[in-house]
Design goal:
The chain is mostly beta strands and about 650 residues long. The protein is about 5% helix and about 45% strand. Strands 1, 2, 3, 15, 16, 17, 21, 22 and 23 form a 9-stranded mixed beta sheet that branches. Strands 5, 6, 8, 9, 10, 11 and 13 form a 7-stranded antiparallel beta sheet that branches. The protein has a 6-stranded mixed beta sheet with strand order 29-28-32-26-24-36, with no helix packed on it. Helix 1 runs parallel beside helix 2. The radius of gyration is 35 Å and the shape is extended. The protein starts with a helix and ends with a strand.
Length: about 650
């Protein structure tokens, strides 16, 4: 679902009576929006910005044809396509070793698809040829080395001399491969690197050679090694490589997207497909200045390095490299790795990869910020790849308030027990900010109650609150909207909730304006909201417990299943703690002799609170005699079965 459709659906569930024009903008990268989609966004007052895939800081091993068509896709080839023919377009190269050096231009005639052009190795004087030993008893080989610009599955190599010169055939050849380029290898002096061979033919007599490998190989570098076993003239007019499949790795990194002002990040969506054995990783990062890198130059007199041009200003990486080339060598740090570094002071690190099969998730990179960047990495097999047709995200520019800091107290509690927390929020509000009149707080283990609200130290009773449909959060509507004169005033929300995870629970929060339903809800950033509270965080940790099953209760006990509508059933309630996935849970009733009376529950359950009932009947649905019975709750985990047992009394 694209944003235009999403907004229409969203508007169907809210009353849209905007106080001001919404400042939300949709940033759309890739296949263009349709005219109907643009009209839908415009009719809602939603701004949009379209960005082409060509706005990239990095494109590695991507299919140029798919980019022109508006899609991101790794390079791939059909079995009958010559991979070498397009190597140069992928920043690959072809080099021929001759006269003790590698030439990066003469070999291009082998890839130009022109049968009338060729590279020729001249005949060698017989006396000189006899004295040119290569170190292991044969004459030094000529080499043709091709970097394909990516890793591909190779099944076949074909090469031939000019049609009118069949006598230029290669009498002896080897084929070597490597998944990456390396400079070291078997060679002597300034000789070319020799790559591990996978095929050798010592007595070739044909001009048109098709070398088929017994097993396909993954390679980026393919090298033809030509031992000169006789001094005769040899030549090649073409060198072709076939295999098929996807390149193993491909990457895209957008240019820095500059917004008009700092923005609250909303959801990020994409459309594409991913084959079962491939991976498509989408990541984001955000910044406070235009450049994620810091550029450095040396100061020889001070024997240190400083930021190039006071940090590069608005320089792009390409602009920096152009200017940097003009510096004398003495002004460049000796180690190339020290010339550019990541600006961790002003930019976030790349996020973890978003789940590809779950588009429409919140951007996790810090905000509000003005600068945004995303990357896409493809990890493919030969037959399985993926693609992205478009990627889009929305942002509110400017955000509701300039700054929004929050913390929670207490930050440590007992696992499984209900705790009263105070949520502190301190907004920085400037003139022109739309502000907010609602607060949303995530409670992953549920919420019991919202107990009080204070704004600038004043308590309010006229507020309302509601629990999210999934029970894992709540919203509070404030009695009034904080204004710029309230900037820095503390908003305190007191609520009661359990914590069921030992590793810690995050109580993420956002603020919103009910009169601007399409705006991005602004995220509350952990920090020092109240100097009197030593928390500075929005997460809570718990004391350790060895049990996964917490606080089982049996109510009422005894119970009277006589059909009078009073205490006819007994409730067995408990909490499951520390689980990362659902586990099988069983609840059984036994008599005092250990005989099974009834199985009342047998199914997987994830972390949470649960209640199951027993109506006092046995497996045949007949009422049991009055007396004492045993209940047994069992959790079936990898380490065994954790059980909790107790007594329940039946009376009439």
């Amino acid at each position: 679902m694209r944003w235009a459709e999403w907004f229409v659906v969203a508007l169907g569930s809210v009353v849209f009576c905007p106080r001001d024009a919404p400042g939300v903008t949709v940033y759309h990268i890739g296949a263009p929006l349709t005219a109907a989609e643009k009209d839908s966004l415009t009719s809602l007052g939603i701004d949009f910005a379209e960005i082409d895939w060509s706005a990239a800081q990095l494109q590695a091993d991507l299919d140029p044809a798919s980019l022109q068509a508006g899609s991101l896709r790794p390079n791939s080839f059909a079995p009958d396509e010559n991979i070498a023919a397009t190597a140069m377009s992928r920043d690959g190269w072809v080099r021929i070793f001759q006269f003790a050096s590698e030439n990066a231009t003469v070999g291009q005639v082998l890839l130009d698809s022109d049968p009338s052009t060729a590279h020729v190795w001249q005949a060698i004087d017989p006396d000189q040829f006899a004295n040119n030993s290569f170190g292991w008893g044969e004459k030094q080989p000529e080499t043709v080395t091709i970097d394909l610009g990516g890793q591909f599955l190779i099944r076949e190599v074909r090469f031939r001399p000019l049609a009118e010169r069949p006598d230029h055939f290669l009498e002896h050849y080897r084929i070597g491969i490597s998944q990456e380029y390396r400079t070291a290898g078997r060679g002597s002096g300034t000789g070319a690197a020799i790559f591990p061979q996978i095929l050798e033919v010592r007595e070739n007599t044909v001009a048109d050679v098709t070398a088929t490998f017994e097993r396909p190989v993954l390679a980026r570098i393919v090298q033809l090694q030509i031992p000169r076993v006789t001094p005769k003239e040899i030549g090649l007019a073409s060198f072709e490589i076939y295999g098929g499949g996807f390149v193993k790795h491909a990457a895209y990194e957008s240019e820095v997207i500059v917004l008009d002002d700092i923005a609250s990040w909303g959801e990020i969506r994409w459309s594409g497909q991913r084959d079962p054995d491939s991976r498509v990783d989408i990541r984001t990062r955000s910044g406070n200045d235009p450049q994620p890198q810091v550029f450095w130059e040396s100061r020889p007199e001070q024997q240190d390095s400083v930021r190039f041009l006071q940090g590069g200003g608005d320089l792009s990486l390409a602009e920096y490299e152009t200017l940097y080339q003009r510096l004398s060598d003495v002004l460049k740090p000796g180690d190339p790795d020290n010339r550019v570094s990541f600006d961790a002071d002003h930019w976030s690190f790349w996020s973890s990869a978003y789940a590809f099969d779950d588009p429409g998730v919140d951007i996790v990179s810090p905000g509000p910020r003005k600068y945004f960047q995303f990357s896409v990495d493809f990890a493919s097999t030969v037959e399985d790849g993926g693609n992205i047709d478009f990627l889009e995200f929305r942002a509110s520019v400017p955000p509701a308030v300039r700054r929004l800091i929050g913390e929670i107290y207490p930050i440590r509690t007992q696992v499984g027990s209900a705790t009263q927390f105070t949520y502190y929020i301190r907004p920085t509000i400037r003139a022109g900010d739309t502000s907010f009149n609602g607060v949303e707080i995530s409670t992953p283990s549920g919420v019991i109650s919202v107990d009080s609200l204070r704004i600038a130290g004043v308590g309010y009773d006229d507020f309302s609150w509601s629990i999210h449909d999934d029970g894992r959060g709540f919203e509070v509507l404030l009695p009034h909207r904080p204004e710029p004169v309230d900037s820095g005033a503390l908003v305190e929300i007191v609520f009661t909730a359990p914590v069921l995870r030992e590793v810690g629970t995050s109580f993420a929060g956002r603020v919103f304006d009910t009169e601007l339903p399409l705006e991005v809800r602004q995220r509350i950033i952990p920090g020092n909201a109240d100097d009197e509270v030593e928390a500075d965080q929005l997460s809570v940790t718990t004391s350790l417990s060895s049990s996964l099953l917490f606080a089982p209760r049996v109510e009422p006990n005894p119970f009277t299943p006589n059909g009078d509508g009073i205490n006819d059933v007994v409730s067995l309630s408990y909490k499951l703690l520390r689980l990362t996935a659902a586990v099988p849970v069983s609840i059984r009733i036994y008599d005092l002799s250990g005989r099974l009376v009834k199985s009342i529950w047998d199914a997987p359950e994830p972390l949470g609170e649960y209640v199951h009932t027993w109506d006092g009947t046995d497996q045949t649905n007949r009422l049991v005699p009055p007396g004492l019975y045993l209940y047994r709750i069992g959790l079936h985990v990898q380490s065994g079965v954790e059980t909790n047992t107790g007594v329940v009394a039946v009376a009439y």
